[in-house]
Amino acid sequence: MPFAHSPDSKRQIPAQDYAAHIGGVIDRACAAAERAAKYAALDGECLKKTVGLAAEFHDLGKLDEDNQDVLSGRRKARKLPVQHTDAGTAYLLDSIHMTPGAVLVRSHHLGLPDFVEESNRNEESLFRDDAVRERVNRVLSELIKAHEEAFLPGRTLSQVECEVRGDAFHFFSNRSFLSCRWRPCGYCRSLWRSDRFRADHRSASGRPVNWHWIGM
Fold first, then answer.
1. Which long-range contacts (CB under 8 A, 24 or more apart) does 50-53 make?
2. Contacts of 176 (CB under 8 A, 6+ apart)
3. Whole-prediction pTM value?
4. Residue 48: how many CB atoms within 10 A of its CB?
5. Tens of pLDDT along the chain (216 residues)?
6. Phi, psi for 208 (deg, rounded to 5)
7. Of 96, 107, 153, 214, which is least surrounded by CB within 10 A?
8. Minimal CA–CA distance to 131: which of 80, 181, 70?
9. Burial annotation 163-177 (CB, 10 A radius, 16+ → b, else e)
């Protein structure tokens, strides 16, 4: 059984298993998104789908074997040996093609990125952690398999289109669904040039506002 949080012997708190943690985060994040969607006349449904997928894959990297050694209590460490947000970010970017959710996953501990700075990075590094990117790319399929086995085995993903009809900028302020920390981000207008958004429509102001991705 994989774990999401390590045990705390001083407070007599046992390790939390991965499936229970992911299920709990999905429930709470989707409940928050449901409430927020009432104020998003154009994009409420897209917001809920985005948050749901981000919640499911936000801790995918914790399934790395080295991280599991620490989370299970088999090995003592002050922090996880492998940065854990990059795996979920990579999966949502490159396999699901869902950039807004990937940004939420990347941001749930680190805070929102400087989008101007991100837009100047190489395509393979966009929103990724270069310190672990190659390792994550090598083991990503194994992490997804472990996720499927631990969380709702047998479930399949189906093709879903999500079109952001309002101001896409506001999607990236919603990292609070997955975290209680906040750090101001850089102004993100130059990000609209990124191919990662796979945009095919533009608003009256010229910014791309349409994303297509795979959902549940």
1. 50/98, 50/100, 50/101, 50/104, 50/162, 50/171, 50/174, 51/101, 51/104, 51/174, 51/177, 51/178, 52/26, 52/215, 52/216, 53/92, 53/96, 53/98, 53/101, 53/213, 53/215, 53/216
2. 182
3. 0.73
4. 18
5. 899 998 888 888 888 999 999 999 999 999 999 999 998 888 888 889 899 999 999 999 999 999 999 999 889 898 999 999 999 999 999 888 888 899 999 999 888 888 888 888 998 999 999 999 999 999 999 999 999 999 876 554 444 556 666 665 555 555 445 543 333 333 333 333 344 433 333 333 333 333 332 222
6. -70, 135
7. 153
8. 80
9. ebebebbebbebbeb
Of the candidates 152, 4, 158, the one whose C-alpha atom is nearest the C-alpha of residue 84 is 4
Q: Are 129 and 83 in contact (CB under 8 A)?
A: yes
Q: How far apart are CA 93 and CA 48, in angstroms?
A: 18
Which is it for strands 3-5 and 158-163: parallel, antiparallel or unpaired?
unpaired
In contact, 98 and 52? CB cutoff 8 Å: no
Using an 8 Å Cβ cutoff, are 69 and 75 in contact?
yes
